[in-house]
Every structure is written in structure tokens, then in C-alpha cells.
Amino acid sequence: MDALFQLAFYSLVLVGTIVLHKILIPMSQKLELVDVPGGRKAHDGKVPLVGGVAMFFGFCVSGVILTHGNEYFLLLLVALVIILTTGILDDLNELGVKTRFAAQTAATMVMMIFGGVSLQSMGNLVGVGEVTLGVLALPVTVFCVVGVINALNMADGVDGLAGGVSLVTFIGFYVLSLFGGDGLFKSGILLLYISVIAAFLYFNMRGPGQPKARVFMGDAGSMFLGFSIAWFSIDLSQGDHQVMRPVTALWVFAVPLFDTCRVMARRVKFGRSPFTAGRDHIHHILLDHGISISRAVFMIVGGHFTLVAFGVVGEIMGIPEYLMFPLFIFAFIAYSLVVNVLDSKRVKHSSSL
Known about the structure:
Its cofactor is Mg(2+). InterPro entries: Glycosyl_transferase_4, PNAcMuramoyl-5peptid_Trfase_CS. This protein has one domain. The chain contains 14 helices and 4 strands. The strands form 2 sheets. Strands 1-2 form a two-stranded antiparallel ribbon. A hairpin with a 7-residue loop joins β3 and β4. It is globular and about 55 Å long.
């Protein structure tokens, strides 16, 4: 595609996905895809849960047109249909953890067996040579994909957060794809994600004239985007057409990984299941310190952007993996220490009320 045609095509994808949202929002009541306030959900009124469905269909239709039904893209869609269907069922009638994990594992098997996308190498993380997984490739790939899906799901707690984080991550993938000489095929698919996420954020992000979200992505949306991020984190970091090293994939999804690991470790420490719900995520902590939702999202997405940019620059400049990995661990430790301090002050403040 020449530059002008690309601009027109992706603008049409953006506008088309916005139109899909406008069609699905009034249908949400009939479809029973609405989020009802109550319990931990403090939003006002019923909010349509059609963002994920709109993003998927915008991505699906435009992707078939862009790739002319290429086998790679069709296999991606097969896996995504499994993920989206599971997410919709979860939005309609909350599924158990085992059911969700089984579906996510099934989609990962499609990705590995038919799509040929699997985690075979961890790269030269500690400076002693490439770490290959061998027979551990299958369980490690499943663990990583399921982990990424649920990390993004946990980030979907306030308006604009999961969408904003996903947008920054896909922009990071896109830049790496261009600099890595991947050509236009996968970078074109990545631009589709950027377009449909931007359309969703038009309805989900708070801003002037929109004091609250008009639509949520739901579990269908967070699982759709989480699986897609996992797919491209692995696909772009493995094999002969590698455009980034595995350690860079960590940086490009840094904040959701940091927050999920910290929260799960904290829950296990206090004898709770790591999969239970709670107000222990970074966005909850910031809100409980009196920071507005818009500012909290700006801070978290801004921090994520900084870490993604560092990872992308490190990849482009060729900073050794055995330096990038310890720096990533250091960043995680620093993040955990700061958030734990904020959390402890929040707890003390709450207990004194």
C-alpha cells in the first residue's frame, strides 16, 4: 500500500469500528451484555459490555481484507474466536477459573500447533548463551499466554486503563516491527489493533464532554487483547524472522506484568488465592489516595509508555540482553517497593477512619 492508501484504509477501520460500537451499544440490553453496578463495581447505571465484540469484528473484517485471507491471519482468527466466545460467556454468566483457563489453553494450542507460534528460546538473559526451552516449550508457552491474558484482565479496572495500556503495547510492537525489517505484513496487522483500540477508547476514555465511559470492553475485550499481545510477544521474538529479543517483550508489557506479579505475591503472602478479587491493584491504590480516575490512568499509562519506550530503544540500540534483563528486574523491584509503601499508607489511613 502507498502512504495515502494506508492512511485512508486505517482511517476507515477506525471509523468503521466506531460505527460498530454505535450499532452494538443500543443492542446491549437485548444481548444482555451489560455491566450492572454492585459489589466491587461502583459505576453508575448499566454500562454496555460490547467494546470487545466491536473491536474483534472491526479487526476481523478489516484483517481479512488486508491479508486477503492469508493462512497466518485466519489461524490467528480461529484462536481469537475461542477466546472471544469464552469472554462473551464470561460476561453473560461468570465462568469459573478452570473453565476460563481451559479455553485459554485451547486457544494457545491452536497458536502453537497450527500457527507455529511458540516460545522456544528465552534469549541470552544472563550472559552465558541462549537459553532454549526444548521439551518445556509447550508448558512454558501456555503459562506465559494465560499469564498475559489475565494480567490485562486485572488491569481492566477503571475507564481507559486496559485500552490505554494495550494501545501503548501495540504501538511498541509496531515500531519494533518496522525497525526489525518485518516488512508490511505483520506491521499492517499491528496497525489494525491500534486502529480498533483507538476507536474503543473514543467511547471508554474519560475526557471533555465524556465524564464516564459509555462502553466497557468486558472480559471478551480484555481476553481478545491479552491473547493478541501474548501471540505477538512470542511471534515477534522467536524464529528466523525475529524483530525483537524475548527480554524486549517483557518491557513492552511491563506495567501489567509488574502489577500482576506484585498483587499475586501479596495475596499468597497473606494466605489468599492469587485469583481472588480485591482492591490491591495500582489503580485502586491511587484512587484510595484521592487521585481522580483520569489522572490515575494518565499516570499508569504514562509510566507504561516510559518503560515500553526504554525497551524499544534498548532493542534498537542493541543493548545486551544480560543488561536489559537485570534492569527489568530492578524496575520491578522499584515498582513493588513504591506501590507497597503507597498501599501501606492507604491501609493505615483507612484504619484510622
